[in-house]
């Protein structure tokens, strides 16, 4: 096989991988909203970490089963802006915007959030390695979430949702009076997300 042929095959593989990952993202929304927790769990790597020292698809299924059963009568997750970038042929990261609606008894809660994802191809198939939710707001449809602590679920104390915390640019923007003097070079093609993240991590983000 020539170098040109190898490059074409690699580019085709990347295109197909991007499409498969986009399908993975949409399948998550459908499975979660239709409460097919087995289908939802099958989208993750078999040894996915769940928290509390637990791991595996069954543990993830059970945790989300409890969450959906206790907190929501119904949900609808609408996938928005999506960026997928490859670390190597079998690993990728992504940022996925999601606008969600939740039926919570007598209240209808809308939410704006994003996921910071890690994807891994295992035995020829792409899975979620991790989905880290970052929330901007959650509020009753008739109560605009103006002000701080925008996560406002019925019967719970409001709290912050870490929507901006993964990317240092948010705090840096408000800490200065105008634009930076030096304009950096554009981020490498497959490193836009990680360049923006600057190695920042979010730990202990409240999920429910």
TrEMBL record:
Q: Which residues form a coiled coil?
A: none
Indicate the segments forming the SnoaL-like domain, all copies: 14-131
User: Which CDD domains does the protein's record reference?
Assistant: NTF2_like
Instruction: Name the chain's protein.
Output: Nuclear transport factor 2 family protein
Species per Swiss-Prot/TrEMBL record:
Aminobacter carboxidus
């Amino acid at each position: 096989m020539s170098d040109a042929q190898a490059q074409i095959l690699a580019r085709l593989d990347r295109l197909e991988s991007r499409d498969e990952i986009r399908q993975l993202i949409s399948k998550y929304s459908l499975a979660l909203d239709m409460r097919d927790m087995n289908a939802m769990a099958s989208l993750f790597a078999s040894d996915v970490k769940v928290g509390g020292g637990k791991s595996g698809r069954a543990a993830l299924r059970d945790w989300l089963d409890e969450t959906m059963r206790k907190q929501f009568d119904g949900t609808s997750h609408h996938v928005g802006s999506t960026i997928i970038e490859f670390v190597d042929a079998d690993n990728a990261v992504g940022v996925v915007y999601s606008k969600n609606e939740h039926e919570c008894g007598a209240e209808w809660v809308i939410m704006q959030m994003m996921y910071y994802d890690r994807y891994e191809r295992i035995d020829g198939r792409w899975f979620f390695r991790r989905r880290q939710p970052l929330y901007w707001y959650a509020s009753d449809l008739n109560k605009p979430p103006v002000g701080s602590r925008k996560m406002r679920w019925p019967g719970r104390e409001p709290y912050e949702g870490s929507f901006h915390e993964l990317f240092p640019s948010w705090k840096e923007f408000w800490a200065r009076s105008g634009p930076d003097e030096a304009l950096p070079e554009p981020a490498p093609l497959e490193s836009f997300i990680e360049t923006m993240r600057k190695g920042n991590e979010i730990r202990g983000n409240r999920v429910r």
